[in-house]
Design a protein that fits this description.
alpha+beta; 213 residues; eight-stranded antiparallel beta barrel; 55% strand; 15% helix; elongated; single chain; 14 strands; 2 helices
Length: 213
């Protein structure tokens, strides 16, 4: 009788532990997470007569995500950040540095892979508001060109990949490409999607470190 009681007690304890663990996993899948990220940008502007990702900038931001699927692998990320875009033009007739500082709000659909969500891939949009534009031509502040950028980089698309080395520390890479013209007036330029959408378009690569809480 004692053996039977002990066996039943053991089974009840195991069932309770399993149920608690399942509830813990279910709860963790529903929780909002928090991540801080920062690093460097490699930038260019398509349509400004420059080329290559030869303008170095910076980025920093904080984001949170929430699950969209029952297992928590599909999530939606909302971020608030500060990022520096622009380009560097150097040729025989001119040296121009374009520095555009934006407050951005990336919105991305992401998917977590591997154990403990080590690998995350995602894509989305990152609308941004211009906080400051500074253009220098031949080392002199160029007021006309500084004022030629719109208040919004309204529709950059973005893609990201993040890998976590530990539970809290990781690295990430992102790619951004503006789909709408960011300049008010354009003597020349390229276009996106349709020919009337002609002008200048930010394009950049980001590399940085992430810290998860």
């Amino acid at each position: 009788m004692k053996k039977l009681a002990l066996s039943l007690l053991t089974l009840m304890l195991l069932a309770s532990a399993g149920n608690a663990e399942a509830q813990h996993r279910k709860k963790s899948q529903k929780e909002f997470d928090l991540e801080v990220r920062g690093g460097i940008n490699f930038c260019q502007i398509d349509g400004d007569a420059s080329g290559n990702y030869n303008k170095i900038g910076f980025h920093g931001g904080v984001n949170t995500s929430f699950p969209l699927s029952d297992d928590g692998s599909w999530r939606f990320v909302v971020e608030l950040g500060l990022t520096q875009k622009g380009s560097s033009i150097n040729n025989s007739s001119m040296e121009r540095q374009i520095s555009l500082l934006y407050v951005e709000i990336p919105l991305m659909l992401v998917y977590d892979l591997l154990d403990n969500q080590q690998l995350r891939i995602g894509a989305g949009i990152a609308p941004a508001i211009l906080a400051k534009a500074n253009v220098t031509t031949n080392d002199v502040h160029d007021a006309a060109h500084s004022d030629n950028y719109k208040r919004m980089d309204a529709l950059p698309i973005c893609a990201s990949i993040r890998y976590k080395f530990t539970e809290h520390i990781g690295i990430d890479l992102r790619y951004y490409n503006s789909m709408l013209n960011t300049a008010k007036e354009n003597g020349s330029g390229t276009y996106r999607i349709f020919r009337s959408n002609k002008g200048q378009f930010n394009r950049l690569l980001q590399a940085g470190v992430t810290i998860d809480f």
